[in-house]
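Zn-dependent hydrolase
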Amino acid sequence: MKIGKYQLHTIHSGYIGLDGGAMFGIIPKPLWEKTNPADEVNRVTLSTRNLLLVSDSRKILIDTGLGTKWDEKSRNIYRIDDNLSLEKSLSQKGFSVDQITDVILTHLHFDHTGGSTKIENDKLIPTFPNAKYYVQKQNFDWAMNPSDRDRGSYLKENFEPLAKEGVINLLTDNEFDDNISFEIINGHTFGQQMVKISDGTNTVLYCADLLPFVSHIRLPYIMAYDLQPLVTLSEKKKYLRQALDENWLLYFGHDPEYAAVTLKHSEKGIVQDKVFFDLI
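Tokens:
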């Protein structure tokens, strides 16, 4: 798929298992397990699906997935499967980490920025040596001093080295270039930026954690992880309505099956219409 000057490529960087109750909040398990079956300890499968935007002058990666810095205990807790690593997936598309010019981070939770750094010679360094990284300043500030509630989601090894190396750009607005802009949301965490790629005719919205799964299109389906669930509800209403009215394609980072959907009206409200396993 091409939008404006950018060719869009789906990049897979592994799978993780998280508690189904946490992923669906107040929704009873007999409802959510119809679309997202759980394993024997109640974990549902999340993809860490990223997006690569390629133009003549830039190769922009959106989010970096889990990374490979995990110890065995964490691998077991989160059922981490990184056989589809970021580097392997980029290579399959014909790209290398050295070619990435920019990394846009929607927010700094470990499943979105774990691949931003790596260990080399016992030192944490940026994974993409020639890239500038971008995140909202509000989210970076929160990540550096998170609450006790969400401290475990912000692992400083994933982003503090970027600041020390001087490669992270802290944003305070929502414009990037002629085809890329950000939608700033605060329900899941503070200063999360969804990435909107548009040429005025076609639009793709990288939904990040506003809509982890396609099943989260339903308004009450809100993660227990969200710091401000009522804000999330308001944000969902706003962006689902706009996406439907303007015929956006919604891109999902965590749905284990579907990469993107369009929307339609139904007697139950706004629901998915066409589904896509990949961007072609």
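Helices lie at 20-24, 29-32, 72-77, 86-92, 110-113, 137-144, 160-164, 229-245.
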